[in-house]
Design a protein that fits this description.
heterodimer, A: mainly alpha, Helix Hairpins, 4 helices, elongated, B: mainly alpha, 6 helices, extended
């Protein structure tokens, strides 16, 4: 390959980069889950972490040439959809009884 | 303007979309805006999937996540009427945010260090295989390239190796739907029933 421009000397995008980006995404999701008080936003942060795991699966499936990783992502998506449905159902029934409740207010089970 | 440069542009733009949307999710005061940041992140992840030849998963990502899950979030936000801005400067537990930041930095640092250290092992082991070609190899050793090879490979793997898990998925979805209907139903008061 001719060294005509700076584009030629750089390597292709490596799976390592995808893994680092997905670890950053997972970290942002974990931080949001810990600091946010709104239960809906906490669910969104869980979705962020699930997507980071999905990106890791796909990056490794591509780099290792193994389709099983993409099948795992398929199952993660199904489970995430079911989890969101059940979680939002619980949230609706809680917030209908106590409007404006945050995660700190739901402490009836505390000893 | 060769393909490597385009790969770089796609990677960095999609990463910026992902991380920017994720930061928006945790920083926006209004839950509706947070949900829209989540859409941005999900589209960024879908672009990353396309860049890694996972075309079917990219389509499912857009349809299921951005199309169904975020709409469900927005629907619940509107239904409950919690689409008001909240004051994020209130810290109920004073030390929680610094501790969460320390934990996050530690987690990301540990995972990134492990990834970088293992960088050679997870390199491109099969650079020429590709998950976008059909899995059949002809007599002269060539992979059959077709337009929907990714879907064919995924379907073959899903319905041969993971068929029991696929069946259990339907049970899971039925249980989730029935449970949600039971959870959110308004029960008649005791004695008020006929």
């Amino acid at each position: 390959m001719a060294q005509t421009g700076s584009c030629d000397v750089i390597a292709a995008v490596e799976p390592t980069w995808y893994l680092i980006v997905s670890s950053l995404l997972f970290g942002i999701g974990a931080f949001g889950l810990l600091v946010r008080r709104n239960p809906l936003v906490m669910f969104m942060c869980i979705e962020l972490m699930l997507n980071a795991a999905n990106l890791t699966f796909v990056a490794l499936a591509t780099s290792l040439g193994d389709i099983n990783g993409q099948t795992a992502v398929f199952f993660v998506m199904v489970v995430a959809a079911a989890e969101v449905v059940v979680g939002l159902g619980i949230l609706v029934s809680i917030l209908r009884r106590r409007p404006g409740a945050t995660a700190d207010d739901l402490a009836e089970l505390k000893g | 303007m060769n393909t490597t440069f385009l790969e770089y542009v796609v990677f960095f733009v999609a990463s910026l979309m992902m991380l920017g949307g994720a930061i928006g999710v945790i920083l926006f005061k209004n839950p509706v805006h947070a949900a829209l940041g989540l859409v941005l992140t999900l589209f960024g992840v879908a672009v990353q999937f396309v860049a890694q030849e996972a075309h079917f998963l990219a389509a499912v990502q857009v349809i299921v996540y951005a199309g169904a899950i975020v709409v469900l979030f927005l629907f619940v936000i509107m239904l409950l009427g919690v689409d008001r801005a909240v004051d994020l400067s209130i810290e109920p537990i004073s030390i929680q945010r610094p501790l969460a930041a320390v934990m996050t930095v530690g987690l990301v640092g540990l995972v990134s260090a492990a990834v970088i250290k293992a960088g050679d092992a997870i390199g491109t082991l099969n650079p020429g295989l590709g998950l976008d070609v059909a899995g059949e190899i002809t007599a002269d050793g060539q992979n059959i390239v077709s337009n929907d090879g990714n879907i064919q490979q995924l379907a073959r793997n899903l319905y041969n190796d993971h068929v029991l898990a696929f069946q259990l998925t339907s049970v899971l979805l039925i249980v989730a739907v029935v449970g949600t209907v039971l959870l959110t139903r308004k029960w008649p008061k005791q004695g008020a029933a006929t």
